[in-house]
Design a protein that fits this description.
mainly beta, Immunoglobulin-like, single chain, 22-stranded antiparallel barrel, Ferric Hydroxamate Uptake Protein, Chain A, domain 1, TonB-dependent receptor, transmembrane beta strand, cell outer membrane, Plug_dom, transmembrane, about 850 residues, five-stranded mixed sheet
């Protein structure tokens, strides 16, 4: 009786929640399925039983799915078959229904039944299923899906199929994604731009908002299922991210039963331990994951700052300052995530998750500065040695609640989402400076405590219009509140206590509220043409202030943006598609770009943010062609990206005769990118796969800041490839590589960057366990990057060495039992046999 009461309570709660969601969405619920469901779940009814068998062998089809539908096509209840192919549907009200039976490798069977009155049970006998060889072939292809797949809006990289990712981080995964590039410092760019929006499972995260390069090191690659690169986002997506959207999809099990996995990795640069557990029983699913990552990084650099005096366009050197630096970083991170979902019925689902993460990064760096005359004579009074200790701590909390309502029509859905993110960070450094006689000439301590809170409310509704296409509308509110409390202490001798510098100590508060609405209409004609038109309106109000008013800010202002979105696509024979798309995107300045906190750990290069930055707007146009022929796919794109009010890093001297450079951010001008991307993937012998990707673009940069306009332009490219092969006895090998051409900006040029990897994997214990060995950049111990930076009074020549030879060994074990088995014919085709975990 207690179970009946609990079930009734959940049903009533679910019905009330549905009506609330319906009222918010302004959509009336259909009465038919609700009424039928109430009748179905009465305490009395008829028990319907039967057996599902193979039409040829007459053997039972274990774990097939049986659904009970009324004559209107509404699914009322359902149940899986047991190991003998038997099923039971309890408490069915008298009436006429259809039994819909489905299973992988078989044609879906519809079987009509009549449930009479005055009886306690109904035996429908044996129901045969006919084999579907085409479906079986599709399952085999899906089980060995391509590493790269094309979508209407971009592409998908199936990270779980790449064994070289095992034991790595999200940064390692993104290095192998077409259209993306990751530089030596972990910065990610899409088609030549770092202005991207990164999501996790389609939702924003403050973990990724403050320092993307550092955050990607905290996400284990073993938790990533795939990565979506969306170069032409529809109006449903936030307009943030002028280059596009990256959506990281994590692994989540929807199978009945209990499953779990533990992965341990040991290596010379990284050590980690990650685990996850999934439980699903009937309508309730629970999942938990936790892990820790330990990584070490070494590097050094050397730079020559050549100062000059310019007369009649001729630069005459006045002095040279040489700096050499060496660093060692030790990073630690931990995370825990809990989630669950409950299916009230086939139309209503509620899910929630909580994630807590902590990280710490300790860096020990030395900086040696020497000064020379134009003739090369060293000046002893210019010698300085600095020992700098940096400590960064980060703690994040994320939670979200997601209610999904499915209506009677296919693809008619309502989503209500609430998200709360909170992130706190602490960035400290302490330095000791000595002269050439080992006398301490300066002591500094600096601390910066940051907070970032974000609250999101979102409602999305999709409504199919029969043969007239699909219509989507939505509302969203994102409320951000960020702060930075920074303090600076110094003294020029250890005999005098550290004292606060009021000019470098302050509190900065920043708030940004974005309210948006969108519509998107998609029309498909005769399975040949697809048209999509949409628009997104965003109202943004920002405010910012400093506790003390040494710096003027211009932040308290609202602005309005309407971003149109268009797409036309035609399908040809042999799975060919041609797509033309246009969208407008926006890039608002981030907290790190706005915060006026000054980092003076390098006395010759002072870094700080600019609280007077404005948002930049970008127009994206793309023409895409894709072709799928049997086991080979090909994709080609031409794109044009025009950015106005471009936010870029800017370096300048405060005066012509001052050695100190200031590095900050400004709205510098215009940035036009014209490019093409090509990718091809092919399979061979059903066990091997090769893929090649090329992104070639021309960047035209124009600046109107300063006394003289700056114009720079040039070609750049990214080239990547991968190859894999699965041998007998569950042994597989995979290799991947990428090459990034030299890069240019308005003030700098840098040399090429590359990475490559080789992975070997052996599975055993019926593929429940496996050992992987991965090596990266094994031919050379370090990767060197040369950068030239041009300023009004000097030129800087920098050489950076990053020691990135990586070797790691990983062991993973899957455990548990899922209530799911493959059919005999599927087992015969795949050769995998039955798998319980």
């Amino acid at each position: 009786m207690a179970n009946v009461k609990q079930l009734s309570f959940l049903k009533v709660a679910g019905i009330l929640f549905l009506w609330m969601g319906s009222a918010l969405g302004g959509i009336p619920l259909k009465a038919a399925p609700l009424t039928t469901e109430i009748i179905l779940w009465q305490t009395t009814g008829v028990s319907v039983t039967g057996t599902v068998i193979d039409a040829v062998s007459k053997a039972p089809v274990d774990f097939a799915t049986v659904a009970l539908q009324d004559k209107g096509g509404y699914t009322l209840t359902g149940a899986p078959c047991d190991a003998q192919g038997k099923f039971t549907l309890p408490q069915v009200a008298p009436g006429t229904y259809d039994l819909v039976i489905s299973f992988i490798g078989y044609k879906t069977k519809r079987h009509s039944i009549t449930v009479p009155e005055g009886t306690a049970s109904l035996q429908v006998g044996q129901i045969p299923l006919e084999s579907d060889s085409k479906a079986l072939e599709e399952v085999v292809v899906t089980g060995e899906k391509n590493l790269i797949q094309e979508t209407d809006d971009g592409l998908v990289y199936n990270a779980e199929n790449d064994i070289t990712n095992i034991g790595g981080t999200a940064a390692d995964v993104l290095k192998k994604v077409p259209s993306l590039a990751v530089d030596i410092d972990g910065n990610v760019e899409m088609r030549g731009s770092t202005k991207i929006k990164v999501l996790i499972n389609g939702k924003p995260s403050t973990l990724l908002a403050d320092n993307l390069a550092e955050a990607l090191q905290q996400i284990p690659a073993d938790m990533i299922k795939s990565v979506e690169v969306i170069t032409s986002p529809s109006a449903k997506y936030d307009s943030e991210g002028t280059a596009g959207v990256i959506n990281i999809i994590t692994k989540q099990s929807t199978m009945e039963g209990m499953t779990g996995q533990v992965t341990a990795t040991a290596g010379n640069r990284t050590n980690n331990l990650n685990s996850n557990l999934n439980l699903r029983k009937n309508k309730l699913g629970l999942r938990a994951s936790m892990g820790g990552n330990f990584n070490d990084r070494l590097g050094d650099s050397e730079s020559d700052q050549v100062y000059f005096r310019e007369e009649n366009l001729i630069q005459s050197p006045t002095k040279l300052i040489r700096q050499s630096s060496a660093f060692e970083n030790n990073g630690r991170s931990l995370f825990t995530q809990l989630g669950g979902d409950y299916d009230f019925n086939e139309q209503n689902n509620l899910s929630a998750s909580i994630r807590v993460n902590r990280s710490r990064n300790l860096s020990d760096r030395t900086l040696t500065t020497s000064q020379f005359t134009p003739s090369g004579e060293e000046q002893p009074e210019g010698f300085r040695f600095r020992d700098i200790d940096n400590l960064n701590r980060n703690q994040g909390f994320e939670t979200n609640l997601h209610y999904k309502k499915r209506f009677g029509r296919k693809d008619q859905e309502l989503d209500l989402i609430a998200i709360y993110n909170r992130n706190t960070s602490e960035s400290d450094y302490a330095l000791t400076e000595e002269n050439g006689e080992d006398v301490i000439t300066r002591l500094e301590q600096s601390s910066n405590l940051g907070t970032n809170r974000e609250l999101t409310f979102q409602a999305d509704y999709a409504h199919p219009l029969e043969k007239l296409g699909n219509f989507e509308v939505g509302l969203k509110a994102v409320l951000r509140d960020a702060g930075s409390d920074y303090d600076f202490l110094f003294t020029k001798t250890p005999l005098v206590p550290l004292a606060q510098d009021p000019a470098r100590s302050n509190q900065f508060h920043y708030a940004q509220d974005v309210y948006s609405s969108y519509f998107s209409y998609t029309l498909r004609l005769q399975k040949t043409y697809t048209f999509r038109v949409g628009g997104r309106y965003e109202y943004t109000f920002v405010s910012g202030d400093l506790a003390t008013g040494q710096i003027e800010t211009n932040l308290a202002k609202p602005f309005h943006n309407f971003m149109p979105n268009l797409m036309v696509m035609k399908r040809f024979k042999n799975d060919q598609r041609l797509r033309l798309s246009y969208s407008t995107r926006i890039q608002r300045p981030g907290m790190n770009q706005l915060n006026p906190y000054r980092n003076e750990s390098n006395q010759l290069n002072i870094r700080y943010g600019n609280p007077n930055l404005e948002a930049e707007l970008t127009h994206n146009t793309e023409l895409n062609y894709s072709w799928l022929l049997k086991s080979t796919s090909f994709n080609a794109s031409m794109y044009w990206r025009q950015t106005n009010n471009d936010i870029s890093q800017y370096q300048f001297p405060i005066s012509p005769n001052n050695d100190t450079l200031h590095t900050t951010f400004r709205n510098l001008g215009e940035n036009a990118t014209y490019g093409t991307s090509l990718s091809a993937t092919t399979r061979f012998k059903q066990k091997g796969q090769i893929g090649l990707n090329l992104n070639l673009f021309y960047n035209d940069l124009r600046s109107f800041v300063g006394q003289n306009a700056i114009h720079r332009s040039g070609f750049m490219y990214n080239l990547s490839g991968n190859a894999s092969y699965r041998f007998v006895n569950d042994f597989s090998v995979q290799t991947a590589g990428s090459f990034t051409s030299p890069r240019l900006s308005l003030q700098s040029r840098s040399t090429y960057n590359y990475s490559y990897s080789l992975g070997l994997r052996k599975e055993f214990w019926q593929r429940k366990a496996g050992i992987s060995v991965n090596v990266e950049n094994f031919l050379f111990s370090n990767n060197s990057i040369r950068t030239t930076f041009n300023n009004a009074n000097s030129n800087n020549y920098n050489l950076s060495n990053n020691y990135n030879r990586i070797v790691r060994v990983s062991f993973n074990y899957r455990f548990g039992k899922m209530e799911f088995k493959r059919g005999k014919e599927l087992e015969k085709l795949t050769g995998e046999g039955k798998r319980k975990g």
